[in-house]
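Chain A, query sequence.
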Amino acid sequence: MTRVPRPAPAQLDAEQRRLYESITSGSRAAGPDAAHLTDEHGRLAGLFNAMPLNPPIGDALQRLGAAVRYEGRLADRNREIAILAVAAHWDYSMVKVEFNDQIRASRPENA
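Chain A, predicted structure.
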């Protein structure tokens, strides 16, 4: 059972749609996490799903997350370790799924 409504892109109002586009077409969409931004129906997945409920707050949160992840000074490896440590602490399974998918994708086919 879903606790937060999961509207399809066609159900979003103009303000929600702008936020949806910011999330799905920004830096995240170009990286390894792109496959996990939306589900098979195009609905926002994971923590992004709640953001359209209040687009001004959702936009501020997604911009903060993008700044920390893509504009910060931590080395990529250190940043990913920090993300995994927080996810493990809070038992956030979405990050674990994304990480495992990235590991599988980075392995040579013969390994």
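The first helix runs from residue 14 to 25. The chain has two domains: 1-72, 74-111.
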